[in-house]
């Protein structure tokens, strides 16, 4: 495993793109490593968990509000909004579906020195995959990568030490 030293930089600082955190994350995402069967099964279980949690919150006010916002953004190609027919922009589908998953705060939690909800990555990645027509295997690989990165960030950067809430890992 490669260990990367990460620090903040001022906006005016010039430093190589290859040293940007986003670039390093993209390198992990682009690495064509195979997803083991047990990881694939776990990703599928996490997707089912997210769907169940979103179904439980479908009538709550924040969820209905986010869904109404998304419905104003039809798109072809696009992504689905939970519980609604049609195709909507990936950004707005991710928003509405993410609110539905997050509203009850019942989905997966990773606990370490800091903690996070790596399942928060599922709605946006599913929406982008739908809009781009990505294969299921590629979506699973992307979700496995998202989990790996978010868990490594939670283990490597303890935000609580700095009185920052864990959602900043997103």
Per-chain topology:
Blueprint: H1 21-30, H2 37-56, H3 61-71, E1 74-79, H4 90-102, E2 110-111, E3 115-116, H5 122-132, H6 136-156
Helix pairs in contact: 2-4, 2-6, 3-4, 4-5, 5-6
Polypeptide structure, described:
Helix 4 packs antiparallel against helix 5 and helix 5 packs antiparallel against helix 6. The chain is mainly alpha-helical and 170 residues long. It has a two-stranded antiparallel sheet with strand order 2-3. The chain has a domain of 101 residues. It contains six helices and three strands.
Structure classification: mainly alpha
C-alpha end-to-end distance: 22 Å
User: How much helix is in the residues?
Assistant: 40-55%
Query: What is the strand content?
Result: 5-15%
Radius of gyration: 17 Å
Shape field: globular
Q: Give the ordered list of helices and strands.
A: HHHEHEEHH
Average pLDDT:
89
Strand order of the largest sheet: 2-3
Helices, by number, come to 6
Uncertain parts:
none
Question: In total, how many beta strands?
Answer: 3
Biggest sheet architecture = 2 strands, antiparallel
């Amino acid at each position: 495993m490669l260990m990367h030293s990460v620090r903040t930089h001022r906006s005016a600082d010039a430093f190589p793109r290859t040293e940007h955190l986003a670039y390093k994350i993209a390198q992990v995402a682009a690495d064509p490593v195979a997803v083991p069967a047990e990881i694939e099964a776990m990703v599928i279980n996490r997707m089912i968990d997210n769907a169940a949690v979103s179904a439980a919150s479908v009538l709550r006010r924040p969820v209905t509000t986010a869904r109404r916002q998304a419905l104003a953004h039809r798109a072809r190609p696009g992504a689905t909004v939970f519980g609604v027919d049609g195709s909507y922009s990936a950004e707005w589908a991710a928003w509405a579906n993410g609110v539905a998953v997050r509203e009850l705060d019942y989905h997966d939690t990773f606990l370490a020195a800091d903690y996070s909800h790596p399942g928060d990555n599922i709605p946006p990645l599913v929406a982008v995959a739908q809009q781009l027509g990505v294969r299921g295997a590629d979506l699973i690989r992307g979700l496995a990568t998202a989990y790996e990165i978010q868990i490594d960030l939670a283990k490597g950067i303890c935000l609580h030490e700095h009185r920052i809430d864990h959602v900043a890992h997103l």
